[in-house]
Amino acid sequence: MKFPQADQILVEIQNANPQNKEELEAFRIKYLGSKNIVKPLFAEMGKIDPAQRKDYGQLLNEIKNTAEEKYRKLKSEIERESARHSTQKLDLTAPPLPRKKGSRHPVDIVMNRVIDIFKKIGFSLAEDREIEDDWHNFTAMNTPEDHPARDMQDTYYLRDIEGMLLRTHTSSVQARVMTHQKPPIRIIAPGRVYRNETISARSHCQFHQVEGLYIDKEVSFSDLKQTLLYYAREMYGPDAKIRLRPSYFPFTEPSAEVDVYWGLESEIDHRITKGTGWLEIMGCGMVDPKVLTNCGIDPEEYSGFAFGMGIERQALLAYRIEDIRWLFENDIRFLRQFHAAI
Ligand code: DAH
To answer: Is 142 in the same domain as 198?
Structure first.
């Protein structure tokens, strides 16, 4: 034993066997803490015969490394052991805590109801992209270059990709489907749309629509009206009444807006229907022959109807929500209220 003191410490460390957290901490303080017993040995260096200094230095390093390694190993062993003990303390016979179920978003609930209603009469689901090109969103839908809907103020254009935008309506899916499918076509297209609008209690820059499209031989306006009446009765009850008001959309001719009779019993009814008792729920019409031609369908052979409805508005009404912004805030206190609604 060339360096009895240091050699002894090394042996001590090798033999040490801390059994628990407290003993391990004592080990750490003694050999690795800021006042550990190895430190003074480093200070002895100057007193060592220069010929033996290298060996001495190596021995001190070995002491340090041995202590560090032992500490690390024991620490993880002891931690693992105590974790095992704590799981053993679990009472596995205890009945499970009730699991918290998530709830559906009110927009989702209403949208799914709309989808179910149309699925029952043979419409199938067509979903497509939210980032769209100018052609599918506007040009194919017979919306000319200088139409106000194209204005920068309404549409979010992609800054770096010419001609690309966030779709402003689900009518773009009509163009997607008609260019890929041959009639008969009977689809509904739900999804999110975007418009550059000031956010307020009544309007938002993002919202949801459900689009409907039916193309076949000899589809008529009365087919449209009957389909919409069916929808209103399923959605608003068997006594629901609708009316169609003439309107204008570039992609339909003739076009109409659809109102459902809401009633005029309470003061709230007066307020939300602006005193008329009627509520507007969607736009619709016979697909303009130019739209069919644009999408490669012969208007001499086929005709069709289309409609597009907003979902938020119907969700606000169904759940008496005062402010559309609640629908986009992801506030868990708001969302939890829809547990029972699924
Ligand atoms: N795309 C229209 C909008 O966002 C709604 C609409 C109206 C869709 C008439 C249609 C339609 O399919 O025929 O305001």
So the answer is: yes
307 CB within 6 A, ligand 1: yes
184 and 284 fall within a common domain: yes
Longest CA–CA span in the chain (Å) reads: 111
285 CA closest ligand 1 atom index: 13
Please state, as a whole number, how many other Cβ atoms lie within 10 Å of the Cβ of residue 121: 12
Enter the pTM of the model: 0.72
Centre of ligand 1 to C-alpha 249, Å, is: 7
Q: Which residues contact 98 (CB under 8 A, 6 or more apart)?
A: none
pLDDT per position as a tens digit, 154-184: 899 999 999 999 999 999 999 999 999 999 9
The total of structural domains in the chain comes to 2
Residue with CA at minimum distance from ligand 1 atom 4: 169
- CATH code (residue 258): 3.30.930.10
Question: Which of 65, 39, 51 is CA-nearest to residue 2?
Answer: 51
Structure tokens at 6: 């240091």
Looking at the structure, tell me whether residues 139 and 251 fall in a common domain: yes
Query: Does the beta carbon of 285 lie inside 6 Å of ligand 1?
Result: yes
Same domain, 63 and 163: no
Our mutation pick for probing the ligand 1 site, out of 150, 168, 171, counting the most ligand atoms within 8 A of Cβ, is 171
Distance CA 37, CA 27 (A): 11
- Say how many Å lie between the CA of residue 236 and the centre of ligand 1: 21
Give the structural domain span for 35. 4-88
